[in-house]
User: Fold this.
Amino acid sequence: MNADQLIRDWEIFVYLQTPGKVPSTDWFPRRSIRILVPSTYDYFSRISKCPGGWEEWSPIGGPSACYRCFTNEEEWEKANNICKQYNGFLASIHSRVENDKIIDICPDSYDLWIGYNDKDVEGNWVWSDGSGVSYENWDSGEPDGKSRGIGIGDNMIRCAAQRNEGLLPPGRGWEDEECTSKKKFTCKVMLN
Assistant:
């Protein structure tokens, strides 16, 4: 059997493996090669202890993580790359309690970049760490495709920021903003 025949008779399947779950194989054809690729959520190594300057927190029954507020202002992509240098991502938020915790960690910041974005597909909001979407906290009228009420071109409004104005009550909602705007940000790193 030559290589061409082998390629015609076999199919190759590549899919993202969900961390901690064993993939089902009953939907694979009998003659197939299965390649498991870890999702981005599991791509970066987890750490065993929070570094200095980071705060450890765990929701009841949830996984522990380390959080850090960065007060230097960066564009969304650069902020996410800074988080990756610490084996993390811009913070993903999965509950109201976690949302409020991030506000507690960065109490004096105006707006904070979080990991929520629809950079790949307009209207399909995802977390930069690849975790599932289980919670949203959009402010009234958001996402609106505008930056502070100014429509500047739909392709630029693809990143979410946590509103955290000191004059407003805690827990104010998220807004979609131009990814090239510079904001403070919160990183999240998962613990083992």
